[in-house]
Amino acid sequence: MTRVVFLLVPGVHLLDLAGPAQVFSSAVDFGADYELSYVGDSVSVPSHQGVPLGASTELPSLEVDDLLVVPGWRSSTLVGTGALSARALAWVRAHHDCGGMVASVCAGADALGRAGLLDGRRCTTHHELQDELERRYPAARVVRDVLYVEDGRVVTSAGIASGIDLALHLVAVRNGPSVAAAVARTMVVYARRNGDDQQASVLLRHRSHVNETVHRVQDVIESRLTDRLSLAELASLTGCSERTVTRLFGRATGMTPLKYQQALRVERAEHLIGQGATVEVAARTVGFEDARMLRRLRSR
User: Fold this and answer.
1) Is 159 helix (H, G, I), strand (E, B) or coil?
2) What is the pLDDT of residue 194?
3) For the chain, which residues make up each domain, given as ranges?
4) Distance from C-alpha of 273 to C-alpha of 66, rounded to nearest angstrom
């Protein structure tokens, strides 16, 4: 039996906790042997979303194979937030010193830093907190814009949904990729992402503008990802001239419609390759004629 113990911090994000907890509890349905428990400095821990969470104030004695997870809390800053007692932080440190693995989600990385576990290690956190984490722990190497980082039995993730990616990775390592894939399917997770995948997808990075014409062009490209779309066709569908579409699209996204489609295709192909597809199969699945173009775009 492997215990997965979540250390709950006041203001904890529900998804930071619930995502990994769901992964490990679902893994039990596929033959994994996990027991989940929840501890904190008080018996009732308020979540940021307003749901009070029950916790044990008794910090258990952990075995080497047990996993300790610190979910993140909602805050625009790290300093002065995430209250944890010296006793709890010493317990986190002691588990790692005895050979155990410690993980964090989002702002939870700050708790690991206060426990002295980030010095000399690679780590990450939510992109809004990376600068501050770097300032607070100058001896750590903060890896930017990735989903999770594992270094010396310390695993840190970007936050919110990336906690699911972190937990699936740990299940894959401990129980095999087939169990992790089965858990991802039962959780209806789109794809099990690699740790070095970017925190923001192509869609998120280039959809933050407010130009409705460009949004309509993007809708067409995304719904017809594998089609050969001409600029003339996109212009016709939006009721604009080709020149106007090019100008508006470039101003809103910093790229042409063709480059946007290529970026989406490459990102989708990376997911397929990560799930075991060959480069050739992935290239053809996303709309490239063969793997040569995909290889060129990936190399950039």
Assistant:
1) coil
2) 54
3) 2-186, 202-299
4) 31
Fold for domain 2-186? Answer: Rossmann fold (3.40.50)
Determine the Cα angle at 104 with ends 99 and 110, to 5°: 105
pTM given for the model: 0.71
Each residue's pLDDT tens digit, 24-38: 999 999 999 999 999
Q: Rounded CA gap, 27 and 177, in Å?
A: 11
Torsion of CA 21, 74, 190, 4, to 10 degrees: -20
How do 148-151 and 154-157 pair as beta strands? antiparallel
CA dist., res. 95 & res. 247, Å (int): 56
Residues classed as catalytic: 106
Cα(197)–Cα(143) distance, integer angstroms: 12
Please write down the long-range contacts of 86-91, taking CB distance under 8 Å and 24 or more positions apart: 87/41, 87/59, 88/7, 88/39, 88/40, 88/41, 88/59, 89/114, 89/115, 90/115, 91/59
Phi, then psi, of 139 in degrees rounded to 5: -80, -10
* 202-299 topology per CATH: Arc Repressor Mutant, subunit A (1.10.10)
The contacts found for 254-262 with CB under 8 angstroms, 24 or more apart, are: 254/206, 255/206, 257/217, 257/221, 257/229, 257/231, 258/231, 260/202, 260/206, 260/218, 260/221, 261/221, 261/225, 261/229, 262/297
* Residue 106 scores a pLDDT above 60: yes
